[in-house]
Amino acid sequence: MGKYKLLALDMDGTVLNEQQQISDVNREAIYAAIEAGVTVMFSTGRGIQSAQPYIDELKLQSPIVTVNGSEVWQAPGMLLNRHLMDVKWIRSMHEMAAEHDTWYWAYSVEGIFNRDNWPGDLNDLHWLKFGFYTEDQEKLTKIRHVLQAWDVFEITNSHPFNLEMNPIGISKASGIQDVCKLLGIDMSEVIAMGDSMNDIKMIRAAGLGVAMGNAQVELKQAADLVTVSNDEDGVAQIIRQYILS
Known about the structure:
By secondary structure, the protein is of the alpha/beta class. About 35% of the residues lie in helices and about 25% in strands. The chain is globular and about 55 Å long.
């Protein structure tokens, strides 16, 4: 085996193309990396509910980091650890979203909720992440300033028009560090690939941090290198260059 033993892949905008599919080229490269002895895993802002179909599609049995690190799975169906958000913060962010008239969503252990299906009793659920979406940058900036002042969240995004909140200290990087401990490897032996600000900590922490060609500018600046876009099979290109060669 070569220098890298773990490949951590963001999903949307990275391993998935703009049609939300895993291309045949990426799929074959992922299988080749696994055959070469490298652990290939997803590290995603999605909850396990929406990541699972792709895990099943690839028949992966590797660890998974979901909800930006709020859940870490030893393998599909085997939870390693979970970091919950206090319901009072979910309530406060929900009120803020209503005040600013933004779209919002949240992941809980029990399911995904948004403006169209918000639950009646928040105390009945175990909360993992909250997100705001608005194309009004002034609103987004105001919301961010308030959230930063609270000083209790990791504040990231998965798109230039959204904000995503996890408990402070919890990120895709912290999740991958848990996986490294599980596998007995070092972060220097990890390749991490992503396209958005919720990927920046894992990009910086990994031995090789790769930004997609379609990534946000700040992520490209933080990465060790920039590959081609998610529609050009950037994942396969990195696998060929740094794992199979």
